[in-house]
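**Tokenised fold:**
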Amino acid sequence: MKVRKAVIPVAGLGTRFLPASKAIPKEMLTIVDRPTIQYIVEEVVAAGIEQIILVTSQGKSAIENHFDYDFHLDAVLYEKKKTALLEEMRHLANLIDIVSVRQKKPLGLGHAIWSARNVVGNEPFVVLLGDDLVLSEQPCCKQMLNIFDEVKESVVAVQQVPKDETYQYGIVEGQHIRDRVIKIDRMVEKPAPGTTKSDMAIIGRYILQPEIFGLLEKTTPGHGGEIQLTDALLALSNQRGMYAYEFEGTRFDAGDKLGYLKAIIAFALRHPDIGENFSDHIKHVAAQL
């Protein structure tokens, strides 16, 4: 079955970016000249997905507004003959069909995904976390869809991390069936040191079969009263199998201050208008250190 829908949870408070995120959703913090969430949406569009479901909460209307048509702005840009900007804003408003559902209580990532069940329906879907940006030649989401077409089962994106950092991630264990593809045997959420030999960590990209919704509904809340996605993923992998894909590209944790700054530099260096000058600036700054 073709994967047509993507779920993007954006209901979090963004406490790691306070006070900047007090009045502005963290997903609207900019990387060069566009908000973080736009890069995620553009990745989805480039992968051929037809619809996005935003899982929102109170105070997140700026995200929806960003992708909406703005008649007043359109008229101003038209009057001032800012043709390029006008075309870009119209293109933004027509990128993809976007609907929103509300996560009424902050009960974790698993609950956020479960909140989209009625819109997703009985079909496989993509989940992308707004904190994770992937810079790659082929969109990470598209890479994963190619693997899904091959294995016909759920796929999680993974990357190799230092052994002494595995405790910060969900870790997968399993057998390599070919280059970059692992048949998952076990998943461990933030394992204690010495409890796993694997260094393959799950990052914020998933393709999930719809059975995940029933499993999330049965999942017992864990730490902080939150419904953990990893618990339901493990149950799903036992029920019908699951694969991990080591994607090609560089991932940035844009929900972390240092990761966010690294993302700005990486994307700025590739920007068609400022990349060359910014590269010269970076070299100049480095020479002064």
Notes: The longest strand covers residues 170-178. The chain has a mean pLDDT of 92. The chain has one domain: 5-282.
